């Protein structure tokens, strides 16, 4: 043991020396042995560094790996935080979807117009309401005194572009005197009983043996009752045939006679055709 120690203490220190095998080149002595003939100062320094590194145990490596993972997660979190901040500053959503730029049509305000409530007013009044808001009522066959019963669209605000306005109207209800109302009621009652011609109904309404209305009131009632005189002639012809037998000419004479039905020739002929003559 003492001999070995003495030998080690007599060896030269590590360094570069002339190659022991001869030649002009130098060779590195590490204190115990010669380095390879082709070794360079750089490779020797690297080998020396590796040799000097301490050997680590398994738990040393575990701590190193954990530390590296923590550092990497911190770096990634910082990068993502920077991206989120950039998205917030740019006004984008977290998913990165770009907001669609508003179109020109969406920016422009939709022009509207307020349609007035015209139901219950006359057609003339409705036109005045529409003129006041820049609208017009066209293609209406109703009289100015007709009453608006419905409108399309309804009252309220509507887009002005493409607006189509229409109304439904009806003739105003007539205002009758008491005598006219009674004459019209009597005319309806007579027509419900049997067939009458226009002249026959006027005579019945104005006769002193009938209703006794003035001739002008009786005439007005006969025209206002809305009777179908052709249908009345057919009803009258059938009544005559139900009472007795008539030839075609005899029935014609009965329908047109001033003492009979007082129907016009056209009304009588249509009635004859209707009953089979």
From TrEMBL:
Record key words, sorted: Lipoprotein, Membrane, Transmembrane, Transmembrane helix
Pfam families: DUF2510 (PF10708), Lipoprotein_Ltp (PF07553), PASTA (PF03793)
Sequence ranges assigned to domain PASTA in this UniProt record: 109-169
Cited SMART domains: PASTA
PROSITE patterns assigned: PASTA
Alphabetical list of CDD domains matching this protein: PASTA_pknB
Transmembrane residue ranges: 58-79
Superkingdom to which the source organism belongs: Bacteria
Name assigned to this protein: Ltp family lipoprotein
Protein species of origin: Microbacterium memoriense
Source species taxonomy: Bacteria, Bacillati, Actinomycetota, Actinomycetes, Micrococcales
């Amino acid at each position: 043991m003492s001999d070995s120690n003495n030998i080690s203490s007599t060896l030269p220190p590590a360094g570069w020396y002339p190659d022991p095998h001869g030649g002009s080149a130098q060779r590195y002595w590490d204190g115990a042995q010669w380095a390879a003939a082709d070794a360079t100062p750089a490779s020797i320094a690297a080998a020396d560094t590796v040799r000097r590194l301490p050997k680590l145990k398994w738990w040393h490596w575990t701590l190193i790996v954990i530390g590296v993972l923590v550092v990497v997660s911190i770096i990634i979190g910082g990068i993502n935080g920077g991206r989120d901040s950039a998205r917030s500053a740019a006004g984008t959503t977290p998913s990165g979807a770009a907001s669609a730029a508003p179109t020109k049509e969406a920016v422009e305000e939709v022009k509207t117009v307020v349609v007035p409530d015209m139901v219950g007013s006359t057609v003339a009044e409705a036109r005045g309401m529409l003129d006041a808001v820049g609208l017009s009522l066209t293609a209406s066959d109703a009289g100015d005194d007709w009453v608006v019963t419905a409108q399309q669209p309804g009252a309220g605000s509507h887009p002005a572009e493409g607006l189509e306005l229409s109304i439904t109207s009806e003739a105003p209800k007539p205002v009758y005197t008491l005598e006219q109302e009674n004459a019209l009621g009597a005319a309806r009652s007579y027509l419900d009983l049997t067939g009458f011609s226009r002249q026959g109904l006027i005579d019945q309404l104005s006769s002193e043996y009938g209703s006794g209305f003035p001739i002008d009131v009786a005439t007005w009632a006969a025209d206002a009752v809305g009777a179908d005189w052709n249908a009345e002639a057919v009803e009258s012809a059938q009544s005559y045939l139900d009472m007795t037998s008539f030839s075609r000419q005899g029935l014609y004479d009965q329908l047109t006679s001033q003492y009979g039905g007082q129907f016009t020739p056209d009304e009588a002929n249509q009635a004859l055709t209707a009953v089979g003559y």
